[in-house]
Amino acid sequence: MSETTPEPIPPNWPVIATILGVLFVAGGLIYGLSQDVGLLVVGILGVGVCLAVGWWLGAETTTAHLETQRLAEAAQTGGMRTSGMGRLDDTRDAIRFARAAIEASPDPVLIIDQNGRLVGTNQASRDRYSIDPGQSRFSAVIRRPNLVEAVDEVFATGESRTLSVESRVPVDRYERVSIAAFSVDSSRFVLMSVQDETEARMSERMRADFLANASHELRTPLAGIIGFIETLRGPAREDEAARDRFLEIMHLQADRMSRLISDLLSLSRIELNEHVAPTARSDFTAAVQEIVESLPPDKQSRIRFAPDGDPLWVIGDWDEIQQIAANLIDNALKYGGADSPVKIKLNGWLDRETALRLAMRDWEGASRLPLTSPELERDRLYCTLRVEDAGPGIARQHLPRLSERFYRVEETATGKSGTGLGLAIVKHIVNRHRGGLVVESEQGRGTAFAVYLPQPFELEPARSEPSLTPA
Ligand code: ADP
């Protein structure tokens, strides 16, 4: 906050002219009536003193008025011009106090003046709405017509309002926005505060979805198991061969039920956190390498993966990026056809266009589709993980539905175990990481799934700080 000396009050020329006029007329009258020079001097002095007192009182009022104007101005600019006067200092302290209190709020807070200017923000609101320091128009920051209308309405009526706001991009978000008017002297302002209700709403939805999905999906394998138990207790009681076969099927069904529950739980957990982008740094190369090394030897021998050994940093959680790699590699091994190779390609420090091209434009003549895309972020760098198989490929019409929950492509999934949740899990992890998921496939050639994830600028090899240790 900069401090400047107060501007002097300008001379009030009309008042001065009126005083001189009044003195002149009064002098003329006194001298005309009394013809006495002494009386003339005393009279003029008397009238002069009365006018001087009146002028001084007027000047006080003018000062107070200017002071009020400065206060309004200070409130609007967020800064404060000072005079040496106590009242102004109190107000300056009050404004400083209010600004510090707003800054400390964990919820986004915005203050708007009558001209639609943003005159107050806090860190939470600057982060939430990506407000640049130069941005001053409220409507340039909040682009939702219903919020802009509500602010206008609160200015017009002075009555507070509360709105529920839902956004879908880049991830689902639920917010409660409170808008209230307040005045400083004669200037009116509006305070908008935003409460994030995503977590509460998502956990409510998660519970409902989990119950619906679990009860629906578990019913079939459970009915199978009950049927086999009845057969084993009745007609097949003495049939040893049938008993072994049925027990084997029951084991598979129970296994499927347990995988379903664990996939549904993972999905719910990721969805619950999807609006909170990760902040950790993880080495994608090491994460993929660990997944490959954990595969049984017969599967590992099918993998073609030759990392160059350099870490490939992503802004992401280790467990979640491993889950992406595990699900895509597992699918490629499962649907790629027995004994066929699975190629894993990692590339890093790419701009968005190059990342997208490397991720899904490698096979001429193939069908391709982005299954989820991040919001545009200027200058962001990405790394890509592409997993290619040499399987039967997926027909074009199935591509758009691939990351839907429980969607399985009959031609490729028949006879293969699975829950239909693997790609949905990958998609939600990628969304949370503000990355993208794409598929490229050609029947007879194979399928490639790829993800691209944001990388941290500060860890880019060319950019990182030079080492202080002598070579
Ligand atoms: P799951 O594998 O458990 O069925 P996913 O969500 O991982 O579930 O995959 C959904 C469906 O997409 C699979 O059932 C399969 O039909 C198809 N699919 C996934 N990956 C491939 C692949 N690499 N090649 C062919 N089809 C695939």
From TrEMBL:
Protein name: histidine kinase
GO cellular component: plasma membrane
Ranges that cross the membrane: 12-31, 38-58
PROSITE patterns per UniProt: HIS_KIN
Keyword ATP-binding part of the UniProt annotation: yes
Keyword field: ATP-binding, Cell membrane, Kinase, Membrane, Nucleotide-binding, Phosphoprotein, Transferase, Transmembrane, Transmembrane helix, Two-component regulatory system
EC number: 2.7.13.3
Reaction(s) catalysed (UniProt annotation): ATP + protein L-histidine = ADP + protein N-phospho-L-histidine
Residue ranges of every copy of the Histidine kinase domain listed in the record: 213-457
Pfam families in the cross-refs: HATPase_c, HisKA
Protein origin, superkingdom: Bacteria
Gene Ontology MF terms: ATP binding; histidine phosphotransfer kinase activity; phosphorelay sensor kinase activity
Record localization: Cell membrane
